[in-house]
């Protein structure tokens, strides 16, 4: 492939905006990973985006593989999604009351995921997972939950130990401010280790309300489940009268229209969804068996509410997005794009003999700066984050924007062209050489 002309990108306006941001925003950002602490330097400040491209405040152009952390499977500013939002905005942006739009989006979710007989919309993935765990505890009358090291389920108190995503990026093992009494109710097991889960059930017999899992881990980098892992979780939870919660905030509508539970043929008791179902606007949901969901207020005593839940702008964006995803051949085409990128990266790694590996599940990818295949959080933590930081900056200078953390995924969208992917592979080859040469 051709060598890319490397031009040092200047970002004086972005730097000036970020300096102002630090005076009024905590760390200059509204979510920690955006601060670029793990990769060095100041963050880019985005001015606009379209398709697979971002432009920063200085006019520099980037091929974007963050895609709003996976939410934008269609790319930025898809015309049909923008039209749906604009049409609804003229009718009102928020009512705080029911609309027919909520029913339409919920019906699409139930069709795609039959395990979700009823759903409740919320505004973020954190709200969805927090509410699902509350419901599981109420339904079982038990307090303990099991989660997996390196899986991230939002920033509610129950999940902030040995978590992935921003906590992994910043090296935070457990978050101050979480009461020890509550933290003690969360049991951690290594991902892909069913024997460890069995031991927790043996040790805390009749006390575990639920197991919550990312069916495809994507917050310690992309780590697929090993054969039988998810089915064994289903069998274990059923045997011990606990609930199985699939956190499909990332994998839902990402790997196929029915999410990871469709790919692996596993029916969880509860599912959490987010990102893609909002079409780029803030929306998430939790859903599951009718008998469980009917315990939620106003039908039952498990309270959960939200002023902006079911927001009509978000519902309109979600409906437009899911309708496009349901088109015949959409996922086959998306997977072909991602395979082109994944195969190209794998070829570069073979050619160079670099101490790095790559993982891909559908349109989710991660290059790991480790010579070993990553199967759990312990393996992910062995990655050379210093070399990743060098690689990240080299990619950015070549006009390719990746998540500024070793412990996140690359997201391929339907807007990425073959030319975008070929250019990315060329940038990968050159940037990898820079990372491997760094001392």
Structural commentary:
- The protein is α/β, with parallel strands linked by helices and 439 residues long.
- 38% of the residues lie in helices and 14% in strands.
- The chain has 15 helices and 14 strands.
- The strands form 3 sheets. The protein has a 7-stranded mixed sheet, with helices on both faces. A 4-stranded mixed sheet has the order 1-2-3-13. A 3-stranded antiparallel sheet has the order 11-12-14, covered by helices on one side.
- Helix 3 packs parallel to helix 11 (312-325), helix 7 (194-203) runs parallel beside helix 8 and helix 14 packs across helix 15 (418-437).
- The protein is globular and about 60 Å long.
- The two termini are 27 Å apart.
- Mean pLDDT is 93; it is low at 168-172.
